[in-house]
Amino acid sequence: xASALVIAAHGSHLNPDSSTPTFDHADRIREVGAFSExxxxxxxxxxxxxxxxxxxxxxxxxxxxxxxxxxxFTEQVIPRELRLDGWxxxxxxxxxxxxxxxxxxxxxxxxxxxYCGPVGTHDAMSDVMAHRADTVLDARAGSQVGLAVVGHGTxxxxxxxxxxxxxxxxxxxxxxxxxxxxxxxxEPPEVDELTSHFDxxxxxxxxxxxADGYHTQEDIPEDIGLTSDYRTGYDVPAMVDGHRVxxxxxxxxxxxxxxxxxxxxxxxxASIPANRLDDAxxxxxxx
Amino acid sequence: MxxxxxxxxxxxxxxxGIDTDTLSLTVVDDRYRLVVDGTVYEDLTEGEVRDTLxxxxxxxxxxxxxxxxxxQADARWAFLRWIEDADAxxxxxxxRAALTEGEQQxxxxxxxRVRLNxxxxxxYELRHVDDADRSAEQLDAYDDPRTARALAKYDNDGRxxxxxxxxxxxxxxxxxxxxxxxxxxxxxxxxPATIANWHRERTGTLDVTHWAETTERQTGIYAVTxxxxxxxxxxxxxxxxxDSQCLKRxxxxxxxxxxxxxxxGDGTFPCREPCSLVIAAARKWALLExxxxxxxxxxxxxxxxxxxxxxxxxxxxGTTDEVREADVGNAANRYRARYLRAKRAxxxxxxxxxxxx
Lengths: 287, 357
Prior knowledge:
heterodimer; A: alpha/beta; Rossmann fold; elongated; disordered C terminus; B: alpha+beta; Gyrase A, domain 2; Alpha-Beta Plaits; 4-stranded antiparallel beta sheet; 13 helices; 11 strands
């Protein structure tokens, strides 16, 4: 039976580039051909979460939030706006990073919606982060490379930090990097003391953010000492306190995120062919 | 005529039966009953059906388009019918004659055209209404509907358009030779969900959500929007939702029982609920409306008072860019504004009540 995929993202009233990664991932998935329809939907742009389902023909819809963590948007805003009757965060039975999917019938359309956990907490996101690091590292990096996974921090939502710590722990376990640290913009351990957290001469910094914007293009490059003024630009790598610092920009813009979205839908029961992420597991290659 | 269409039609009739406004074909015990172009044929053999259909090529082609090639989805199908005013033409041959000339409709700032191409198939074209008279060579040509997302992002001055249905769609592009499914996809990328809601409205099933219900639903930083009611809701709609700001036709009110005293607009497609842009603006207004009014004393010449009003209009109507640099006769001219600021804003322009104490 034909099924549709909706990528639910934040979008912006002010920043035209906010939705670009969403469009890019959607287009990659369209090319895979696993769904009869693929549609982007936004909180701040159109189609809205409120009206996206009625634009689809398929009666079976997989909704994957393009968000970093479980929290306000994934637990309150998106289910409410999609009119998922009966939704409570307990439907995911998640510990904060383990949501998979739950199925509902929205009030305004004759469809079945499989509401999936966010992209950012899927296990495969750890692999995307490693891949992201590999895309900036080159032969100048020594054998000892430390990885900093950078998140925004708690604010109102402790799960935001949990997602960062979760991927840091997984990457630490995988042993690909000499050291792995979870660092934050607004809580300790803080990213602005980057080099004090590492012994490795090389440090690769991967922000766990969905899109590049104010935080990843302005704040973090200044916080970690790549530059004193983001407007003047910076080199990658740049020498900071005797460390070579390699900065990747938002992990959410990596092309492999499209595969994580597919994994989310597959975990929820969608029939999806083997994808490029499986290849990336065996032999990470810069793209 | 493509004989394959005849074969498909016959096969479809054998399996499902066909009963459309274009033709009807049913089979019982290998004998066919055919109604086409107002004529009833009974008791036909398979060969006779084929021969008879061959004498009604327009009907066969119309069936093949509407029931095989066009998207078999109610809203999109109805939209494609509406574009060519299909129900106005009494017969398939009339309809195809009209399509040879070409048909067109406006959809917001989009101009949708359809005509039969050399292969006698429908070819759709999409462009900005302001480009109606320009030749295709004068426009940038695209064929992937997804490009519409990028075109919809910026206006002619390169500014970001956060509202898809703002009347600021950029000009200078054309999608030519689109198939029906690509056409509706492109339209939905320019104006998301407008076809679906338009169709709901035409079928009496548009689910309007009024202001009070929408704001009551908001949480987090937008929960405050619930505080705006009464006249303030009219002011919100007048600020954001009239035709000069958005091409959707506002169908929501404060509640089902309290309609707003603001024009709904003449748009083809409806607005069924305050959008995210309106809610974000309403949050700001709700916070501002928490302030109490005060009485200020201000010393202005009559012309200066008039100038303040003119400047307010220029900003609200988005016409400040149109005031020429040296047009000091215009009260919204930059030099005029700077003179006023230099003269009056050196101290507090408005004297607050506390200043008297």
